[in-house]
Amino acid sequence: MTTKDLTHDDRYSNQYINLADKRLGTEVLYATDDFFAEKENLINSGRGVFIADKYTDRGKWMDGWESRRKRTEGHDYCDIKLGLRGTIFALDIDTNHFLGNHPPFASVEACDSNTNPDSSTRWVEVLPQSELKPGSQNFFEIKVKDPFTHVRLHIYPDGGVARFRAYGDVKVNWDLKPKSDLIDLVAVENGGKSLSCNDMFFSSKDNLIMPNRGTNMGDGWETKRRRTPGNDWVILQLGAKGTLSKVVLDTAHFKGNYPDRFDLYAGDFKDSKKIEATDNQWKLLLPEQKLSADHIHTYENELKNLGPITHVKMNIYPDGGVSRLRLFGHRV
Question: What's the pTM value of the predicted model, to 2 decimals?
Answer without folding.
Answer: 0.90
